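Posted in: Structural Biology > Protein-Ligand Complexes

Title: Requesting predicted complex, 1,3-dihydroxyacetonephosphate in pocket

I'd be grateful if someone could produce the 3D structure tokens for the following input. Sequence and ligand are given below.
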Amino acid sequence: MGAKKVAVLGAGSWGTALAIVLADNGHDVTIWARRYSQAKEMNEHKTNEQYLSDVTLPENITVTTDVKEAVKERDAVIISVPTSGIREMTRQLLEANRKIPLVVHATKGIEPDTLLRVSEMMEEEGIHKLSSNLAVLSGPSHAEEVARRQPTTVTVSSQVMNAAKMSQDLFMNTQFRVYTSQDMVGVELGGALKNVMALGVGLAEGLGYGDNAKAAIMTRGIAEMTRLGTKLGADPLTFAGLSGLGDLIVTCTSKYSRNWRAGYRLGRGVSLDQVLEEMGMVVEGVKTTQAVSQLAKKEGVEVPITTAIYDCLFNGQSPVRAGQLLMDRDPKKETEH
Ligand SMILES: NC(=O)C1=CN([C@@H]2O[C@H](COP(=O)(O)OP(=O)(O)OC[C@H]3O[C@@H](n4cnc5c(N)ncnc54)[C@H](OP(=O)(O)O)[C@@H]3O)[C@@H](O)[C@H]2O)C=CC1
Ligand SMILES: O=C(CO)COP(=O)(O)O
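-- Reply #1 --
Done. Output follows.
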């Protein structure tokens, strides 16, 4: 594919790593950062010390704090801000009022209270006025490894097959392999729900439990994710793919996972407020745990692991007791729903 003009909104770990993939593919990339000091550092020193130290940005990336300028005459816009920033970011895009041939979001979360997925939040804000091609990019992909060009596979999904194909063409290279899917519901839910399970595995390991507990949470966790996802209209097979099992594995086992690390610190007895303050980066699983609990109640789906994690995060439950209660549940068949 020929070189395209692409904007990446969000200069955190993931936005920066995705911009590097796009720049490596020869595209002309503009990153939008919300702080002037960060934009200046990225432009002048080609670094992003706060979010991805040790990485040098390619020459074909420029950084601006002006959304209008970032999205001017762009073939594609990539959105990579936390779920809590999605509505405001979409509103700023609408204010810039430029038609965009392709919009790809790379955010993993569900909004508490509205219980909407990220693409639904964007639709509700009116993204369709700017683009009829909305896709999501998700999968096992820590920014730290992507930025170092280590082999990575992801899925891009859209209800519009051509949008998924355009996204694949834009990102795909020899280190970054991209698959397409049309199950946007499943791909978005997989990316959001696995963060809850990573908090759970971190909690268990923080308590000193071993690989058996980790395997239990991951395996029963994917069952829980699939049960809820299927009820919400996802293809169950999606949860066996990159944006389900693949991302669950990487987030529950990687030293880079903020969700795992947050869970681990909680398991060591550190308070949630302190954990979040220490992290300095987004831990999406915390708000997603709240959203999934609400969603499961609304849909009448049993999510015992999520409920246990919710109680530890928000109801002062001791992680040891939460684990005991999970183990003491009524006997079940493994495949029972
Ligand atoms: N890091 C990773 O490896 C991966 C992350 N993701 C997902 O990507 C999304 C972004 O995460 P990530 O880049 O890691 O997060 P980081 O914490 O590394 O960076 C967050 C970025 O978003 C900006 N930001 C925060 N709040 C807002 C807001 N309200 N409006 C606009 N910008 C905002 C921050 O700006 P400032 O610095 O000014 O606060 C910063 O640039 C998350 O949903 C995450 O789950 C997906 C795959 C991999
Ligand atoms: O989604 C991710 C990897 O695929 C990043 O996970 P964390 O937010 O837990 O670091």
